[in-house]
Amino acid sequence: MRQILLIPIICYLALLLEFTLFNLFGRWGDPHLLLLVVIFFNLYSGIRFSLWAALWAGMFKDCFSTMPFGTNIFAYVVCAYVSLAVRKYCYERGSDISRLWMVLCVVTTHTVVMGLTHKMTFEEVQWLDVWGSIWLPELVITAAVAILVFDRLRDLAKLLKF
Question: What would the pLDDT profile of 77-113 be if each residue is shown by its tens digit?
């Protein structure tokens, strides 16, 4: 029960930190912390808590997005299921390379889903620009901080005993 109540708070804090880092450092200094939270809860607690985190992360992102409400919720839920598939078939417990592989798969899925929903909602998407100016910076910086974030979230989970 404690974990269900703390997931929205953790997602909100991750959103605030994401927003602050983006304002301080721009696109190349903005890790996708909400995706890391969704991945962490999938690895640490299972798909139910990962979906709960995806729901809250998507709602918080949708509040500040120009896309129709629910787009980010959909994207994060898809990412939660992708992280489940990667965990089931490719993940090795305790391996940093496996964690980075999962980050690569989830960030790529998130980019594709958001690009496709943008294309369906608004206009044609220039995929070359998406890969160069959105996916690459997001992947590089998110992968760079992923291990540190996972370790800190694990420490927080142990501290809060969930």
Answer: 999 999 999 999 988 888 889 999 999 999 999 999 9
Q: Nearest-CA neighbor of 109 among 62, 75, 60, 84?
A: 75
Question: Using an 8 Å Cβ cutoff, are 37 and 55 in contact?
Answer: no
Q: Residue 115, exposed/middle/buried by CB under 10 A (0-12, 13-18, 19+)?
A: middle
Give how many domains the chain has, as a whole number. 1
Q: Which domain holds residue 120?
A: 2-160
Which letter does DSSP use for residue 45 in this model? T
d(CA 155, CA 125): 40
Q: What share of the chain is helix, strand, coil (3-state, %, to 5)?
A: 85, 0, 15
pLDDT in tens, 53-75: 999 999 999 999 888 999 999 99
Identify whether the C-beta of residue 85 lies closer than 8 Å to the C-beta of residue 101: no
**CATH number of the domain where residue 93 is located:** 1.10.1760
φ, ψ at 54 (rounded to 5°): -65, -40
